[in-house]
Amino acid sequence: MGLILVRVSTPSALSGQEKPATVDFYFDPACPFAWISSRWMLEVERERPVELRFRVMSLYLHNVGNELPGWYRDLVDRSIGPVRVAVAAAERCGDGVLRDLYTAFGTRIHQKKDEDFDVVIAESLAELGLPSSLAAAAHDPAYDEAVRRSHDSGKDPEADGYVGTPTMHIDGAVWFGPVLNEAPTGAEAGRLFDSVRLLAGYPDFFELKRTRTGSLRP
Predict the structure, then answer these.
(1) Is 93 exposed, middle or buried (0-12, 13-18, 19+ CB in 10 A)?
(2) What tens digit of pLDDT does each residue of 203-214 get?
(3) How many angstroms separate the CA atoms of 55 and 41, rounded?
(4) Cβ–Cβ contacts within 10 Å for residue 38, how many?
(5) Using CA atoms, how far apart are residues 80 and 60, in angstroms rounded to an integer?
(6) Where does the pLDDT of residue 180 fall: very low under 50, low under 70, confident under 90, or very high at 90 and above?
(7) C-beta separation of 179 from 187 below 8 A
(8) What are phi and psi of 51, to 5 degrees?
(9) Is the pLDDT of residue 16 over 50?
């Protein structure tokens, strides 16, 4: 009597997501929330087929006209420096430079807690072998129009131009977040992305939020 093997397939809640995802990740180098989410997305790349592209946005532009606590106003005002340099580097070397430049900036700002952005910029350019002359862009408002173009490209045209940080375009849909205290790794990173992508692709979903707890662990 022969042995018959039967394979039973269980429908997946995430069916239809086998197609590689396209993600445009908008960041300001000074934002800790963007930094954590970006490290998560780099983990996702190892777990899922994702075309991940980094884009520049600006906390400074996002907060024009807003009343802010003194410490945050200081950070926002200084944040335009690394953003200008990122835009200048992309203009000279192509958008592909943003991934490694962001990592160099963020490692110093968020992990080493270096608050001197001029030093952060100089060391990061040297680490990546980029022209040191790009550092001058930090204090050159001539780059602000390019910053604004990149920043505005991240906005959601269906939401009165709203943008937060981080902003992600997932398969063309514009989302603020997710906001994380710590970047998940490995399989957990992939599972979280599956969930986020599923919600992002549902046309009638627009918000999921809870009270923030815990501390940031960049």
Answers:
(1) middle
(2) 888 888 888 777
(3) 13
(4) 24
(5) 6
(6) very high
(7) no
(8) -95, 100
(9) no
Distant-in-sequence, close-in-space partners of 129: CB < 8 Å, separation ≥ 6: none
**C-alpha dist (Å) from residue 203 to 9, 68, 173, 174, 200:** 28, 34, 9, 11, 8
Amino acid 3: pLDDT: 42
Does residue 38 contact residue 218 with C-beta atoms inside 8 Å? no
> Does residue 87 contact residue 145 with C-beta atoms inside 8 Å?
no
Residue 46 has a pLDDT of 96
CB-based contact 84:144 (threshold 8 Å): yes
Average pLDDT over residues 23-32: 96
Using CB atoms within 10 Å of the CB of residue 127, give its burial: 0 to 12 exposed, 13 to 18 middle, 19+ buried. Answer: middle
Question: CA end-to-end span of the chain, whole Å?
Answer: 61
The residue behind tokens 């520049």 is: 56
**Residues 79 and 58: beta-carbon distance below 8 Å:** yes
166 preceded by cis ω (within 30°)? yes
| Residue recorded with tokens 């002359």 | 133
Which residue type occupies 6? Answer: V
